[in-house]
Specification:
8 strands, two-stranded antiparallel sheet, alpha+beta, 6-stranded antiparallel β-sheet, 20% helix
Length: 105
């Protein structure tokens, strides 16, 4: 996978869950701040992710951007794609099911 640690099919299951809440950016920032301790003013919520859309047998890798809203069903079933800005660099993360995952770009 590229730019995400969550398969598109798994994200779509979460999105279609009956009790899924779409979080506002402010709600997502506060949840990330509470769970992981990142300074709220340095968090940027992203609303898309890059996925590998390469067809089987293709000679070229195709990357596609797909919408990814910050979602929460429960404390152990959620998704937020975000960046944390620091002085020397920007760090890329996802919150998946309550866990912090580094995103390789």
């Amino acid at each position: 996978m590229t730019g995400t640690n969550l398969a598109q099919d798994d994200y779509l299951k979460l999105e279609k869950a009956q009790s899924a809440d779409i979080l506002t950016d402010a709600e997502a920032i506060m949840l990330i701040n509470h769970e992981f301790g990142f300074e709220a003013s340095r968090i940027d919520i992203l609303h898309e992710a890059e996925i590998d859309a390469t067809e089987s047998g293709s000679r070229y890798v195709q990357i596609k951007k797909v919408p990814r809203k910050p979602l929460r069903v429960a404390s152990d079933w959620n998704y937020i794609r975000f960046n944390v800005r620091t002085r020397p660099a920007t760090w890329y993360f996802e919150m998946i099911n309550g866990d912090l995952h580094f995103v390789r770009i």
